[in-house]
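Pasting two entries for a bug report.
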Amino acid sequence: MADSAMNAASAFKTCAFMFMVCTPDLIFGRIRYSIPEELELGAFVGNLAQDLRLNVPQLSSRKLRLTSDTVAQYMKVNLENGILSVRERIDREHVCGQRNICTISFEVILENPLEVYRGEVEILDVNDNSPTFRDSTIALQIAETIAPGVGFPLESAEDPDIGVNAITAYTISSSEYFSLKTQTTEDGFIIAKLLLEKPLDREVQSSFQLVLTATDGGTPQRSGTAQIHITVVDINDNPPVFDHEIYRGSLREDAPRGTLVMKVKATDIDEGMNAELTYVFSKLASARVRELFSLDPQTGEIWVEGPLDFEEAQDYSLNIQAVDQGLPAMLADSKVLIKVIDVNDNAPEVKVTSGVSKIPENSPLGTIITLINVIDRDSGANGQFHCDIPKHLPFRLQISSKNHYELITSEPLDRESVPEYKIPFVARDLGSPSLSTHENIQIVISDINDNEPRFSESSYNIYVMENNTPGTSIFAVTASDLDLDLNSHVSYALQEKLIQNLPMSSYLSINSMNGSIYALRSFDYEELKSFQIYVQAHDAGVPPLSSSVTVNVIILDQNDNPPVIVSPSAQRGSAAIEVLPQSAGQGYLVTKIMATDEDSGQNARLLYQMVKSTEPSLFNVGQSTGEIRTARNILESDPTTQTLVILVKDNGQPSLSSTVTIQIRIMENITERITESNNLVSSPENFSDLNLYFIVIFACTSILFLVAIILLIGIKCKQDRTITQEYNSPSCCYKCGDSNDTFNHRPAMEETLRYPGTGRIVRVPEVHHYSVSLSPESAKSDFLFLKPCGAPTSRVQC
């Protein structure tokens, strides 16, 4: 076939010699190939280089190309060897319909010099379609007066194949009244008619059921059947007859409304009303056909009524009837076949199974989120497409079947980071120009309870002033949860523990909704300086998650305790009495005011001040020590009884104070007089009231000082014991080296107030300590007076 094509091409070139003289670079040739339909992709069609006697290495340099759109869709040429092969499966019925010869024409163009070769590929039919009837039942009405031999046209079956693969025969089931007659038209179609073999008698048999079978001539042979339902009536003897039993036409799918398709015509040899015809669509015509086409009942003209779409249907079959006006009316059937010519006008169609998908954030990798169906109703390259989504998203597309995609997870999801995704999906066909469809797929990430409540601080310090009002809010803790809805609903609770052997719930309560902490009692800094609680936050998820935080409650001191004067003590509000020898020099320690304050810090820092004195120039008081010393030597003119009023005040705001009155009696040679008093006691005659007075004074003074010292030591030991319990410090009381005559008290040189959990340390100034000398040797100058430990005149070492 290739050689004959070359010979024909040579003859054509000879005939066109004169034309080639004018255009020497333009040469014409023609080749022809034949292939069966439905060949697999890449199947061999022909060798263009060999058949056109071309130099294979020059195919690329001379830019060999095919110029027919149709052949480019179905064929491709390999420039490395010149082989023409199948690019896409070819359906002959789709390409050529019912044409006997189906060819695809093309041109081969070469440059430098320009050569044009014309060629065509014939598509041979294979028997891949079975005959089918439009309707499974054919209804006929036959008048009983019709004489035997009259034929009734039957609906023809359809077979897209041609030649021997098309319909070659019709048969009916056996019947004594009817037979089948077939006739082949000029265009090769077989028309079947039902012949009446025997006169009918409606009263004997009013209906018949026959089976019509259409058979093709292919190998293997295929067939189709339809039921013929015949009703016997006694009217009409000449049915209408169409000019053509089958009408054929074609239309572009973009044909506008009102376009004339064709005109059908039928005649009836009857006269009068029996010859007047009306054209209508038969019952076999589908509703869609009636929407797209209109039929003029008087003229038989067919018009375009609605928009055509090649992707919806490549051809339409219009079943038309011509009905006369007789009684009963007789009719004739005809078929109009309209082929629709494709126009590239469709972008890929994207169908998502759900508009908004919702998945939990703990979905495993590979979870199917939604299904996507993509269809391009065009054919060839225009019907092929490619789909894609952005690469940076935690999702990917997976092909599940032809034209079906699955959108699945490719990375872990976290709703707290990204609660919602809007994925742009793009389907782009391979046509030129390319058409595309964009679809946004919305994915909502649903929450799971994977975040516990978190407090705003790692720990909290609450500072509460003592003497607070019970029932008031002292603080509020706040915890947040990154989850949603019930998973983020936070409630608060206090973990139960003991505080000073009492349940914590007797000290504080918390509002479970907002975390406000309330004091249930009034705090006393002197009893409780700080304590620690734990607040737990729970969410309402399933299962619930929780976290806890430490809360340090620190009681702040308030200046609510006045100084308490420990020594010297006054009995029943009277003044304390001190004895001072007249020989005491400047700086002589008369006595020491000792006071305590249960507050702390500045509230416990004490200052001593002399507010009243009989002789202001004779005595002074240490502002911070409380020591009363002589400011000068005692003069004989000084009154023997001195009254001092000492004010002790703290450094709080506002300041609190206490006062003590001290009477100091100046006595001459007090030690010698005591000795003489002893002698007087031994001699009753020398004992006088004055001596008795001095003895009583001496005894009372000694007892008072001893009691004051014992009380002072007891109070101090109690304070040191409290500090020792809190900070594990050593005991406050120690024995001095000489236990026979001296009490020695050695507490820590520096006290600290610590607030557990806060790191706060408050330094307390050094406490002055004193010893009491009871030895006879010191009686003459220092008898029963308090002296600082380590003073030069003291014999006791602390």
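Entry 2 (this is the one that rendered wrong in the viewer):
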Amino acid sequence: MSETNPAAAEVAAPHRYTAVVAGEIEARWQDFWDAEGTYAAPNPSGDLAGDAELAAKPKKFIMDMFPYPSGTGLHVGHPLGYIATDVFARYQRMTGHNVLHTLGFDAFGLPAEQHAVATGEHPRVTTEAAINNMRSQLRRLGLGHDKRRSFATIDPDYYKWTQWIFLQIFNSWYDGEANKARPIAELIAQFESGERAVPGGGSWSALSAAERADVLGDHRLAYASDAPVNWCPGLGTVLANEEVTADGRSERGNFPVFKAKLRQWNMRITAYADRLLDDLNELDWPEAIKLQQRNWIGRSEGARVDFPIDGERITVFTTRPDTLFGATYMVLAPEHPLVDKFTPDAWPEGTHDVWTGGHATPADAVTAYRAQATSKSDVERQAEAKDKTGVFIGSYATNPVNGERIPVFIADYVLMGYGTGAIMAVPAGDQRDFEFARAFELPIRCVVEPTDGRGTDTSIWEDAFGSYDAKVVNSAGEGVSLDGLGVVEAKARITEWLERTGIGEGTVNFRLRDWLFSRQRYWGEPFPIVYDEDGAAHALPESMLPLELPEVEDYSPRTFEPDDADTQPETPLSRNADWVNVTLDLGDGRGPRPYRRETNTMPNWAGSCWYELRYLDPHNSEKLVDPQIEQYWMGPREGQPHGGVDLYVGGAEHAVLHLLYARFWSKVLFDLGHVSSAEPFHRLFNQGMIQAFVYRDSRGFAVPATEVEERDGAYYYQGEKVSRLLGKMGKSLKNAVTPESICEEYGADTLRLYEMAMGPLDVSRPWDTRAVVGQFRLLQRLWRNVVDEASGEVTVVDAEPAEDTLRALHKAIEGVRQDLEGMRFNTAIAKVTELNNHLTKVGGPVSRPVAEALVLLVAPLAPHIAEELWRKLGHGDSVVHQDFPVADPAYVVDEAVTCVVQIKGKVKARLEVSPAISEAELEKVALADEKVVAALAGAAIRKVIVRAPKLVNIVT
């Protein structure tokens, strides 16, 4: 048959496996699977113990990270993780598991809103069109999803429960003694009964409604507050810290981001910091992701210390209270709320010129410096190499351990987002403080004896010295002395003294900040919150959910010049007066009253914080999730003490965004008794990325990769030489390859095999369209081993296979099983290829048991051709739920292995021996071998080194 003449080949082999045949097979079986509900995973109903069939099956809940339905559709890099989870899910079904595997869409997002702003087309229209296109693309890949369970976060039936969860969080507080969230009603009862003191004294009944709301707001897990936020005028919205790049710009749009003080909704995730840290230990996650979360939460132990100032105090947190005697000045973050309070009208007498920044008054200096600091990102402000800047605010605090008056500065290297936003500066022990002290001519006092020989005279020091392995010096005052103590002992002594004198206390601090939960956008979940005439927030009753988005004429928040920091948000919802201003009866006994709706919307993270629960019970309109169903799929069990999804696959870029937020929501729902799982995802797997070559012209612009020619090791586009660099795949880089194009040329099964065979799943790998044909040929050889290409008839025979074929088969079964269990799909494909090649090489009709086992091995990886061949082999039921083959141990172990015999390092003989041979027996056999005896020629043997069963080394 001619490979160079496709037409002739088609005539000679009309039943050959071609791209056209593959497409027909794939379309037919996809329709069949949909019609039959092949991938529908049953939920328990009633008593699981009474459902014998379901109770006998172990369950497996497998998830992909939520995709965002982009209007540009998928390229071949996107489905990598989806194909991997599909292969794994299919294998789990074939090994007897009840598998839940589905896919929904994280559909609220800025791109659809930006398109709506530009075109006036409702974001729902473009989003739903994108979802339909993406569903079509994914269906063509043959993904075995339970489609009954799919949804999008923009569905009102879905975001009704997102709003409901928000209200659970809003109506909860964190009880530190019980170490869990509790309903806010229980806190109110404590205030009413006097069990808990009302802040400021007095009785709960004496407080006005607004005052009670303020007190409760200080405890609620969801609360509104005036706080420093990341304001992005170019987008017209505030951003969470995680949405701001290292250079102080918005992740989307690359606009400048400024610090501003605005009233926003927050989630008190900090209350869960310890539990978020501790429970990581029980999760089966990559250590790199655990480390990122630990660093982001940033737990540190130290002490809180109060520094008196003008009859009040500035509180600092320090991890080194043993260095208190070395504090010679204080620094506040420019945004610190006490700065204005302690900034006098005039400079105090004796103020150093270098401290004033050249300004006539402290207020002028503070205003100018704040404007300078606002334009910098947190990363820029903390850069180690930059010159230290700051300004004296005109006031002095008192060092509580020695009574010394120390000046108070503001400086941009101190952030409100860490600790208390204030530091005690110990320049001898901290490099940033050292550089600041040198720049502003401030004292540097050595309080930890250097161990590097530099001595205690700081005037000759070139840098700071800090150590835990040293003695404390120059640290004696009234009532306490640390001199001569080691650092650990000194920390304990000073902390005890601080607590005894009421000046401070030992405490734990976290880098983690509360989660900023407001966005000034239209396309997001509306808050189920209204405000009364006093500005107090009220929750909508559950009967009013979902609160749906109203129609608006303009979808854009008001945006400003990107560099205009002196602006305020104006949301699209705020312009719809009929929706904003309403009269409602909230069922609280007060009857109908006028209210004002919240006009911010939730961030796009909200919908993905709990979607795993909706997959379990997607059509439940009465409950978030049926408790029995949740317990079955996600409840704690052996090896999973906190419960959660059995396997969660997605990108490592979500380490401290989605994953941390979802864990927080799960813990709140667990505390309130709504779920049995305290963690959402037990096992996490981060897939790598499919990369592609990017070609750029002399201007640096990307050119179409498909039109680039390679000549003599160089690359040319329309005759011009271009550069080539391996990078991301994407439409903007003009190197995207669509799944449809590969499916048209080779079929979906080939695409699936190629993506899985490219390399280990967790490693990035380059795409090469020319290499796809290799997997296509594997499927063609598989087809020929079962089907006659000329007649279309099945060629297998019922004869017993030869022993070498049995050994090849069972080794493949054993290896593929292990590889699929370990998600080593590339090596599983290599083992299938090896078996298939063995059958091709042996030639002749393939034995039916071998052919059937081979089809079952291929089924998780290439399900369409497997389903087709399974039916051709005479089976009436789907291959999807067949039992995966089990290897016979007798055929897995080699009958004999080759042992190399060396004399003085040179190979003299090769012996065929049993793999179970002992070292003593192998030595005996080797020394008796004719070739070995001849090579020794009577030489005395000094030593025999045996490594059974493969090596004997004789030293003469």
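Dev reply: Rendering is fixed now. As a check, the viewer should reflect this: The mean pLDDT is 93.
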